Amino acid sequence: MAKRTIVAMPGDGIGVVVLEQCIRLLNAAGFDAAYVHGDIGWEYWCKEGNPLPDRTIELLEKHKIGLFGAITSKPKDKASAELIPELQNKGLVYYSPIVTMRQRFKMDICMRPCKTLKGNPLNFIRRTADGGYEEPMVDAMIFRQNTEGLYGGIEWSNAPDEVWNAMMTHKKFVANFSMHPRNEVFISTRILSKKYTERILRAAFDYAKEKGFQGITVCEKPNVIRETSGMMLKLAQDIAKKDYPGLSVWDTNIDAQMMWLTKNPENYNVIVASNMFGDILSDGFAGLVGGLGFASSAQFGENGVAVFEPTHGSAPKYASYETSIVNPIAMFLSACLMLDYIGEKTLAQRIEKAIADVVLQGKVRTYDMMKITGSPDAIKKGAASTIQMTDAIIQKLK
Ligand code: NAI
Ligand code: MG
User: Fold this and answer.
1) Is the CB of 324 under 6 A from ligand 1?
2) 368 lines ligand 1 (CB under 6 A)
3) Which residues have C-beta under 5 Å from ligand 2, the single-atom ion?
4) Atom of ligand 1 nearest to the CA of 327
5) 65-70 and 155-157 strand pairing
């Protein structure tokens, strides 16, 4: 019997092909696991009115570890229109199954690595003083709080009395907003708890310690958003003093950090941020190291359920290609995060090394790495297919 069972949730579009190739790679690398299929995505919304059926939740509860491809999401009205006739007009509302999964299993910690692979033509380059150029080696891990903050979903338009009255107890609300008609005032909250802020900070400190980095950077805006960002920075400083005496706490403002992104990205290794700032930061950093074909992520929480997924979506326009041309590396790097998480560190390193070797050699490149338009012609123009890229990486494992 295999040592573990992994819940494989391909989802929609290119999620299917990248996950299939990922399992092929994991098998070739000798990862001892069985895979059970988890239904998720658009098909289940249309057929069952639920893009994350209970049976998939049960599988995750049982086996704890999930590999996820990508899903297709559509705006509410479009989603309702695509339900099968039997489910129409029953008041069903579409919610993203990713957000549901995050909330259901309280997966509050999200890790998004952004690491330069030498030889990747998509790497960011910077002009030097003498007119030449240099390629900074980015090696950043973004720790993004995944469940609270601005994406917590606590918001109102035309707020009810209780909310409006509570707002009216704040003198800045009275001075700046109370003169507008209530139905022309829109409120989205940014609520942080000490408990989950502490958890994301400790995850970052532990990671910095394990990897031998000198500290962590808290990327927020404490001078302006004092209650929440200010709390996070102060908490980081307190925790460092108490439990991580060897580690430093640096702080940057999110706006300045985005400017420094193209100036000195190599100076940041472990960055912690609240939900939305972490989302912005990780996309910004991902752009320096190859973009969506390379951006992986891990999410996990206190009850042991962990899901690993590329950050890209289902890219519907490429889903129907007879020969898939999308880059599977983001999915593969997500699987490496999974291996790392479950303690298979040597295996993770072996796969990472094989990926790095293929990229460095530069003989096998998907269309995005060739900087050509994604089209069925891409293969004729010399781009590797998804399967050829996987083959090349498997070859390097040996
Ligand atoms: P997307 O990430 O699916 O695609 C954007 C573009 O990025 C594609 O057209 C393609 O050019 C490129 N791309 C994405 N993955 C690639 C890969 N592995 N290799 C090479 N190129 C790649 O985002 P888009 O088009 O905004 O959304 C498509 C669908 O995916 C929507 O329904 C959206 O809601 C959903 N989505 C799902 C996500 C998830 O499952 N985590 C995340 C983002 C979007
Ligand atoms: Mg995003």
Assistant:
1) no
2) yes
3) 279
4) 19
5) unpaired
Place of tokens 């606590």: 154
**CA 328/CA 18 separation, integer angstroms:** 5
CA 80, 81, 83, 85 torsion: positive or negative? positive
Q: What angle do CA 344, 244, 249 make, to 5 degrees?
A: 105
Please report, for the chain, how many H helices and E strands are present, in that order. Answer: 15, 14
Residue with tokens 């609240």: 274
Asked if the model's pLDDT at residue 398 lies above 80, the reply is no
Q: Is 312 near ligand 1, meaning CB less than 6 Å away?
A: yes
Mean pLDDT of 158-185: 98
Residue nearest atom 34 of ligand 1, based on CA coordinates: 73
Q: Is 119 in the pocket of ligand 1 (CB under 6 A)?
A: no
User: What Rg, from alpha-carbon coordinates, does the chain have?
Assistant: 22
Q: For the whole model, what pTM was predicted?
A: 0.96
User: Is residue 76 scored above 90 in pLDDT?
Assistant: no
- Count of residues for the chain? 398
In the predicted structure, residue 2 carries a pLDDT above the cut 90: no
- Ligand 1 atom closest to residue 312's alpha carbon, by position in its atom list: 2
For the chain, domains (ranges, CATH) are 1-109+300-398 (3.40.718.10), 124-152+190-288 (3.40.718.10), 155-188 (no CATH)
Render pLDDT for 206-219 as a digit per residue (tens, 0 to 9). Answer: 999 999 999 999 99
Distance 181 CA to ligand 2 centre (A): 33
Nearest to 16 by CA among 351, 310, 317, 319: 319
Task: List CB contacts of 36: < 8 A, sequence separation 6 or more.
Answer: 5, 6, 7, 8, 59, 63
